[in-house]
């Protein structure tokens, strides 16, 4: 006598207990617990390897997230993600942060990625829960924050049947996400979580995994992947000749102003060292306010419509501006004839609205570390300061 498991709710049809072969049941037979169709049942078969597996797909996903250093997951529980929520509940390394709205969960994951540089993770239920993620995930995509979203989905056996709360999640997130995929089989889970994480760190940006609830509840064994063997740093090192050209421009100009953008959010100490060495004032975007201490001798505050008059005057009176980690959209703030060094990880942001004399593609930290030793120490220009 065989056993058949409902892949939606895991209820088991035991032929010995029920007194009837499963195959002889009518085609319109449904699970007495959740109402899933006969096609949702899979044979247990009494195979020893299946009987010995105690962990689910959801358990293994959580183990993989733990191995990748995830410590917080933001979201809202519901029918379509309960297996994953329960696995997170039992984790002693990951804390679930309950939010009042999925949009908030996505924004929190985005902020987590921006501030820490680590993977921000959020979770939603199917249908309206996943559509509610969009605004926060779009924020992560445009601000280049590494975020992985688990979008709960109806059971895989119901996909394509216009089931309650079923939507095409892949089509929904594809326009702005770096990676979107459905975990359609149990043995895909660990590989897809790893690929999604790699894509989230690549740009950085957003990766979305659609997770049918029956797949999450399915049994899965095996070892998770180690971060040190699967994930690599996405930092971009600058070309030495580009850094040397920038240093030459800095050394050959007296009135230099540094302008720091979001790419410098972890580079406050290096920025301060550079400004002190070349005696250059520092202006920032509003988002980077505080990266350089406001009481620092060379701090000018924010440049822009909500910024300080000192920052605007410094730019107007400079001979050279060194833009670090900013696309610098305010082309109207750049006076004609001024020389520009621009540093950014995205080459499309460099020279977007004005000519650049020394472009450098690279992470702010790496560029500043290479630039500091080869710029000349300068004397203060009292009149300029």
How is this structure best summarized?
This protein is of the alpha/beta class.
List the helices and strands and how they pair.
Layout: E1 3-6, E2 12-14, H1 15-18, E3 41-43, H2 48-52, H3 57-67, E4 72-75, H4 82-89, E5 95-98, H5 102-116, E6 120-124, H6 128-131, H7 134-142, E7 147-153, H8 169-173, E8 179-182, H9 189-202, E9 206-212, H10 213-217, H11 227-230, H12 240-251, E10 256-260, H13 268-278, E11 282-284, E12 299-302, H14 309-317, E13 320-324, E14 339-344, E15 358-361, H15 364-371
Helix pairs in contact: 3-4, 3-9, 5-7
Order of helices and strands: EEHEHHEHEHEHHEHEHEHHHEHEEHEEEH
Q: Residue ranges: pLDDT <50 for 5 or more in a row?
A: none
The chain-level mean pLDDT equals 91
**Helix proportion range:** 25-40%
Gross CATH architecture of the largest domain: 3-Layer(aba) Sandwich
- Total count of helical runs of at least 4 residues: 15
Please tag this protein with its features.
385 residues, alpha/beta, Rubrerythrin, domain 2, Rossmann fold, 3 domains, six-stranded parallel β-sheet, 15 helices, 15 strands, 32% helix
Report on this model:
It is a single chain. The chain has a six-stranded parallel β-sheet with strand order 5-4-6-7-9-8, with helices on both faces. It has a six-stranded parallel β-sheet with strand order 12-11-10-13-14-15, sandwiched between helices. Strands 2-1-3 form a three-stranded antiparallel β-sheet. The longest helix has 15 residues, at 102-116. It contains 15 helices and 15 strands. It folds into three domains: 3-52, Rubrerythrin, domain 2, CATH 2.20.28.10; 57-230, Rossmann fold (3-Layer(aba) Sandwich); 240-374, Rossmann fold. The model has no long low-confidence stretch (mean pLDDT 91). It is α/β, with parallel strands linked by helices and 385 residues long. Helix 4 (82-89) links the parallel strand 4 (72-75) and strand 5.
